[in-house]
Write a structure and sequence with these properties.
The protein is α/β, with parallel strands linked by helices. The chain has nine helices and seven strands.
C-alpha cells in the first residue's frame, strides 16, 4: 500500500478499481482534478499504481494505492477500509477493473472463460456489494460495460456476455438503493485507445475500427473519464440506473 496519503478530511472520496492504467488511470486523474481524494485499486503492477499516485500528489491532490483482486471479498473490503481510515469514507466508486478474452464460441478455452467471468462478473458484484454497503448519501457507483454488447461482433461472445451481466445489474442495484440518494450507472465505451483494446490488433484493424463512428476516430481514455466525472458529479445525479454508450455514435 502506498504511504502517500494525508489525514482524513471531509472532502469527497473516490475508490477507483483498475486505476493504474487505461480508462481507470484517466479517471483517477480526472476525479483528482475535481478535488476527490483517491483510493486506487490495482491488480498487480505496483509501479504503474505508484506512478498514478505520484501524478496526483505532485499536482497537489491526495491518493493512495491498494493492491486488490476485485473478485476477492476480503481484499475489496480492505480497499474500502483504506478509504474510511485514510480519508473518512466513500462518495464515489468507479469499477474500471476488467479482463478481455476473445475467441469464437466454438473455440472457447473454458479456463479463460472462467477467469474472464471471475473478474468481470464476480468482481463487479463484489465491488458493487461493498459500494452498496458503504457509499454515503449523494454518492455514485459507476461500472463499465462495452458497446460491443450492442454490436454483437464475432469473437466477443464471452466478453460481451460478461459485460451484459454488468448491464443487468445496473438498474437492479439502482432500485435497491432507493432512499439512499445514491446513483448507479454503467458506462459502455466503444473502441478506445487503451492497451487492453490495442493489444494484438494490427494498424489496418485499428484504422478500420477508428473509421466506424461518425466522429471518425477512436475514443480516448480522457473521453471516457469525462463521462464518469459527469455521472459522479452533482450535475449528473439525476441520471440513475442507466447504461451510457460513450462511443462517438457507433451504436
Amino acid at each position: 500500500m502506498s504511504t502517500e496519503a494525508t489525514a482524513p478530511s471531509a472532502a469527497r472520496v473516490a475508490v477507483v478499481t483498475g486505476g493504474s492504467r487505461g480508462i481507470g488511470r484517466a479517471t483517477v486523474s480526472r476525479l483528482a482534478a475535481d478535488g476527490y481524494a483517491i483510493v486506487l485499486g490495482y491488480a498487480g503492477n505496483r509501479d504503474l499504481a505508484e506512478a498514478a499516485v505520484k501524478e496526483v500528489t505532485a499536482a497537489g491532490g491526495r491518493a493512495v494505492a491498494v493492491r486488490a483482486d476485485v473478485a476477492d471479498e476480503q481484499r475489496v473490503t480492505a480497499l474500502f477500509g483504506t478509504a474510511a481510515t485514510q480519508f473518512g469514507g466513500v462518495d464515489v466508486v468507479v469499477h474500471a477493473a476488467g479482463r478481455m478474452y476473445l475467441a469464437p464460441i466454438a473455440e472457447l478455452d473454458f479456463a479463460e472463460l472462467d477467469a474472464l467471468h471471475r473478474t468481470n462478473i464476480r468482481g463487479t458484484f463484489v465491488v458493487a456489494r461493498e459500494a452498496a454497503r458503504t457509499l454515503r448519501r449523494g454518492g455514485s457507483f459507476v461500472a463499465f460495460s462495452t458497446s460491443v454488447v450492442g454490436l454483437a461482433a464475432p469473437s466477443y461472445g464471452a466478453y460481451s456476455a460478461s459485460k451484459g451481466a454488468v448491464e443487468a445489474l445496473t438498474l437492479v442495484l439502482a432500485r435497491e438503493l432507493r432512499g439512499r440518494d445514491v446513483t448507479v450507472n454503467t458506462v459502455a465505451p466503444g473502441p478506445t485507445a487503451t492497451d487492453l483494446f490495442l493489444d494484438g490488433k494490427d494498424e489496418e484493424t485499428v484504422a478500420r475500427l477508428a473509421a466506424q463512428p461518425p466522429l471518425e476516430r477512436l475514443g480516448t481514455p480522457a473521453d471516457i473519464a469525462e463521462v464518469v466525472a459527469f455521472l459522479a458529479s452533482p450535475a449528473g445525479h439525476w441520471i440513475n440506473g442507466q447504461v451510457v454508450r460513450a462511443n462517438g455514435g457507433l451504436v
